[in-house]
Amino acid sequence: MPNSILVTGAAGFIGMHVAQRLLAGGATVVGVDNLNSYYDPRLKQARLDELARHPGFRFEKVELADRNDVKRLFAADGFARVVHLAAQAGVRHSLVDPYPYADSNLMGFLNILEGCRHTGCQHLLYASSSSVYGANTRVPFQTTENVDHPLSLYGATKKANELMAHAYAHLFAMPATGLRFFTVYGPWGRPDMAMWLFADAILAGRPIRLFNQGNMRRDFTYIDDVATAVAKLVTHPAAPDPAWSGAAPDPSTSAAPWRIYNIGNSSPVNVPDVVGILERELGRKAQVELAPMQPGDVPETCADVSDLERAVGFRPATTIEEGVRRFVAWYRSYHGAAAAGGVKVTP
Questions:
Q1: Is the dihedral angle over the CA atoms 105, 111, 114, 119 positive or is it negative?
Q2: Among 86, 77, 88, which Cα is nearest to 30's?
Q3: DSSP character for 127?
Q4: Options 39, 126, 133, 154, the catalytic residue
Q5: Predicted confidence band at 3 (pLDDT cuts at 50, 70, 90)?
Q6: Which of 80, 182, 319, 325 has the highest CB neighbour count under 10 A?
Q7: In what order do the strands lie in the sheet with 57-61?
């Protein structure tokens, strides 16, 4: 495992777990985050407290949309590897407050690209999203398909990140790997995501809203599987594809050192079935309300991860039943500790 790895969004859900996995592999990790209030910063601080237990971790509060902040960060350290996971998240939130998506996901990413370019980064990995598949309906989603019809601004910014990274890979021979995450869940998750929202509503006796009249399928991907995949890819920098042709371009590879991978479970689950698993683990019945499809949403996601398996020998290993069990155990423990401290964590 290479040393001196920058992990942006280290106080976030995926960022925390990836940093932990890299630290366990012997890397020194510099974690950065702006600790914004999109959801309760106390949860973000609690994640950082977990990371701070490891002597190889150092945290810096950085606003990635501020180019001077990012210049100072890279000038002070220089990083052989960068795992860029910071972003303004949330498909639905992008409908009501679009500007943070331009600041964080576009300008912030440009600043990271420039930092990598000027300090000789050997491999940039960056978070994309299953949202880039947008209006595509053929499942499983394959990285070899074009993704030119986003259904949300969030998805559009992630597609833009892939294009920006390709330009830098082509111009500056900078290896860049895009990671399309599919519905990640597990301990230390975000309170605005389905697993947390459902558990919170069931325990509080509030109704759960299931969109598209409950006819939704998601490729729920357990966080430990995600962290394992990212850690494997850190030491597998993107390389030019000698067979790539502009006459019949493969959207997942390039003549430049640029690559796209799906990181998913490849086993979509009906969302009402997930509610049922949560009911069993929590020991309570859910109140369910059926609602229409939401703007920007899609009825089904499913990742083809065969290229990821070929590249680094990775396959997801956690069933939805086991993943939900682990999430509920953590959820109960975390909220019990929070209640003892007089803290209520809210989205």
A1: negative
A2: 77
A3: E
A4: 154
A5: low
A6: 182
A7: 57-61, 29-33, 5-8, 81-84, 123-129, 176-181, 258-263
User: How confident is the model at residue 339, as a pLDDT?
Assistant: 43
- To 10 degrees, the CA torsion angle through 151, 154, 156, 158? -130
Q: What is the rounded distance in angstroms from the CA atom of residue 252 to the CA atom of residue 249? A: 9
Give residue-wise pLDDT tens across range 135-154: 999 999 999 999 999 999 99
Cα distances (angstroms) measured from residue 231 to each of 26, 114, 207, 313: 11, 23, 38, 12
Q: Distance between CA 271 and CA 213 in Å, rounded?
A: 11
What's the distance, CA 18 to chain centroid?
Answer: 10
CB 75 within 8 A of CB 67: no
Tell me: pLDDT of 343 over 50.
no
pLDDT of amino acid 150: 94
Residue with tokens 């990995």: 125
Residue ranges of alpha helices (H) inside 119-255 are 153-172, 194-204, 223-234
Strand bridging mode 176-181 / 123-129: parallel
Q: What is the pTM of this model?
A: 0.94
E strands present in 192-309: 207-210, 217-218, 221-222, 258-263, 269-270, 287-290
Query: From the CB of residue 282, how many other CB atoms can be counted at a distance below 10 Å?
Result: 17
* Torsion (CA) 57, 60, 66, 69 in degrees, nearest 10: -100
Bin 40: left if φ > 0, else alpha if -120 < ψ < 50, else beta: beta
Q: Are 116 and 174 in contact (CB under 8 A)?
A: yes
| Mean pLDDT, range 256-263, rounded to an integer | 98
Does the annotation mark 154 as catalytic? Answer: yes
Number of other residues whose CB lies within 10 A of the CB of residue 324: 27
Structure tokens at 100: 């943070």
Run of H or E residues at 337: helix 320-340
pLDDT of residue 275 exceeding 70, the answer is: yes
- CA–CA gap between residue 142 and residue 116 (Å, rounded): 28
